[in-house]
# Entry
Amino acid sequence: MQGWIDGFQESIEYIERSLSDELDIENIAAKAALSPFYYQRIFGALCGMTVGEYIRARRMTLAAQELSRTDGKVIDIAVKYGYDSPDSFAKAFQRFHGITPSQAREPGMPLRSFAPLHIKITMEGGNMLDYRIVERASFTIVGLRKKFNTDTSYQEIPKFWQEWMKDKKGLTGMFGFCVDSGGKEFDYWIADVYAPWKDIPEGCGTFQVPASLWAEFTCRGPLPDALQKVNTQVWSEWLPSLKGYELAGNYSAEIYMPPAEDPADSVNYICVPLKKV
# Structure
C-alpha cells in the first residue's frame, strides 16, 4: 500500500517541479506507474478535483505571488505559467482571485492561495464495500459513443444521457462504458451487449471487450449518489489496499440494472478490469 501512495505522491511532486513547464498527462501518470486513464480517475477520487483544475490552481497561486513581490511583466508571468496571451491570463486570474493581475500589485489586496497536495491515506474505521472478482470471456458492446475531456466529463456525460433519452436508438442503456482514447480524452459509450443476429442501429458502433478478470462493486441506492459514493471508495480505499492484483486494460464500466420501484432498493454495479501479479 505504501509503495502505491509513494508513487502517487511522486507524481504530485513532479507537477510541482514543472509548473512553469509544459505538463503532459502521460508523463505525470508515468510517475505513479499508471495509465493516464486510471491516473485521472484516481486523482479525481482522492483529491476532489481534476488534474487540470489542480494544475491551474497551483499556477494561479504562484503567479499571484510573483505579481505581488516582483516587477516582472504581466505577459512574461502569463507565458511562464502556460498562458499565451495577457487576456486569457487575466480572465483566469480574475476567476481564481477575484481581482485583476494589475490589482494584485496593489498593497493589501486579498489573494487566494492553494497549497500543494500531499496524499495521505489513513484508516478511520471500516466502510463496507461489497464486491466480487470474476472471470469474464470476451464480449462485444453496441451503442452510442462520444468523446469527453476528463476536466469536464462529470458535467457533460449526464447531458449525453439526457440526449440519449430523446432517441434511444433501440438501446436499453445497460452500460456506461469508459474507454481511454489518449491523453485527457476518453470515449464514453451508452451501450448494450451486442447481439450479432441484430442490425446495428443507425449512428451506433461496436467495441470488443477482451477476456479479463473483473472486480464488480455493488452500488445500492438512488442514482447518481450511490454510484458516486462507491466510485470514490473504489479509488481511494479499495485500490490502495489491493494485494495480488493490479489494474488492467484501458476501460471500465458501469452496469445499470432495471430500476426498482423504490429508488432506495436500486442495485447497479461498477466494474474494473484486473490482472494477477
User: Anything to note?
Assistant: DSSP finds eight helices and nine strands in the chain. The chain has two domains: 2-105, 131-276. The two ends are 14 Å apart (CA to CA). The mean pLDDT is 89.
